[in-house]
Design brief:
Heat Shock Protein 90, alpha+beta, 433 residues
């Protein structure tokens, strides 16, 4: 009878601890009572039929199933709360048992002692644990990185324990070998996952910096558009007044066309606003303004939404910025007409990034050298940063090609970045401006 009461107190401690971890009040509903009955049957069977102690491990799947049916089968909360429940209930029982030994100086604990220990442990569970806010602690530990770190620490401790056993004993059992093997696998896996999490966190941090960096450029474009809207009526009035200033129809048409081209040139970058991702658009707007000031004939076609292409936004900005920088530097050294074309198009089945500029002809052997490390440091032609650009593209499964081609009776050197082979067959020649 006393043994059954001890088992019941132990099961109730588990139930109360689980509810505290999930932040819910204890209710003895059908699910809770059913779990307690199954748990009780397993432990009673082990005790009365003298089954080996490992059979008590059957209670762990029962606890996990109860957590899922009672609180929901969410993987992270279930695993974290399951482990915390075992750790907390076991720790409380161990501490109470240790204090009992120190107080009564007994070597073997009897049925009455077991009842006292389990009773005190249950009272601690009822009185002290509700004040510990275990649900917040559980939520804190459910962060992916923290789970990895805790699991890594446990794996290292387990592996260290097995290695110490190896040194102290001439031979070890299969169980210790299995624990060591599993621990080492877990250590490798968790270190890899932590590395990935760190890289992801770094990408998010860099993208936030990008948002802050190009927010001013994006806002400047919006302010410019608002200013142009206020000036729209003035432009209409001016063009309407042309009919009183010119004597012939031909003069009027030429004057209106010239004025239209001037106004169009001042506001042609405003159409970037209808595209998506503000980081990319803010970056391009700032770049385009700088390029025009350098006397380069710039044209572009930008048609993107969020531009989710499987590459972080900051990487896209780095790559496109590098290609534009190379093109501008090449055009600065070039005599004659200086033209630059930038393309960023997002399709339903892929995307295309292209930067091309007028240039002398390069044969395929020369263009192949552009992507080699150190080529630009020798001062030969262009290629600054192209080695890094190619590596970044390959990291995310993209391909980059460099070709020389004749467009409009002019030779252009073109850098194209894409992923889908279907998109490779499409070609955009005309710009928006």
């Amino acid at each position: 009878m006393i043994t059954n009461i001890c088992l019941l107190l132990e099961i109730l401690s588990i139930v109360f601890c689980l509810h505290y971890l999930y932040g819910e009040k204890v209710t003895l509903d059908i699910k809770t009572v059913s779990y307690m009955a199954i748990h009780m049957i397993i432990l009673t069977t082990v005790n009365y039929y003298n089954l080996p102690q490992p059979y008590t491990l059957m209670t762990y799947p029962v606890i996990a199933t109860y957590c899922g049916t009672r609180f929901g089968f969410k993987f992270k909360p279930l695993i974290v709360n399951f482990i915390l429940n075992i750790a907390i209930t076991s720790s409380i029982q161990f501490i109470v048992l240790f204090l009992y030994y120190l107080t009564f100086r007994v070597q073997i604990i009897g049925p009455v002692g077991s009842l006292v220990v389990n009773g005190i442990a249950f009272m601690v569970m009822l009185v002290i644990l509700p004040k510990c806010r275990l649900n917040k602690f559980s939520t804190f530990l459910q962060d992916k990185d923290r789970i990895y770190i805790i699991a890594l620490c446990i794996s290292i401790i387990a592996a260290g324990y097995c290695l110490i056993r190896y040194k102290k004993m001439d031979s070890v059992g299969l169980f210790q070998n299995a624990i060591l093997f599993v621990s080492l696998i877990f250590i490798c896996f968790l270190v890899y996952q932590l590395g990935k999490s760190r890289v992801k966190a770094k990408e998010i941090e860099t993208e936030l910096k990008m948002h802050k960096l190009y927010a001013d450029s994006f806002q400047s474009m919006i302010d410019n558009i608002r200013m142009c809207q206020h000036e729209f009526n003035n432009h209409i009035t001016t063009m309407k007044g042309f009919c009183y200033m010119y004597n012939t129809y031909e003069e009027l048409v030429n004057a209106q066309a010239e004025y239209y081209e001037t106004v169009k040139g001042e506001s042609r970058f405003n159409k970037l606003l209808k595209s998506g991702n503000p980081v990319i658009i803010g970056f391009l707007y700032g770049k385009f303004i700088e390029i025009e000031k350098q006397g380069i004939d710039l044209s572009f076609k930008i048609s993107i939404s969020e531009f989710n292409i499987g590459m972080p936004v900051y990487k896209v900005v780095e790559i496109v910025g590098n290609l534009i920088k190379n093109a501008v530097e090449a055009l600065e050294k070039q005599e004659g007409e200086k033209k630059l074309f930038v393309l960023m198009v997002e399709y339903d089945d892929g995307f295309e990034i292209e930067v091309r500029n007028t240039s002398r002809y390069f044969n395929p052997d020369e263009t192949a050298l552009f992507f080699k490390k150190g080529y630009s440091q020798k001062g030969e032609s262009r290629g600054l940063g192209l080695f890094n650009v190619k590596n970044a593209c390959e990291e995310y499964g993209f391909s980059i090609v460099c070709i020389c081609e004749m467009i409009g009776n002019k030779n252009w050197i073109t850098f194209r970045i894409l992923k889908n082979e279907k998109v490779a067959t499409r070609r955009v020649i005309e710009s928006e401006v």
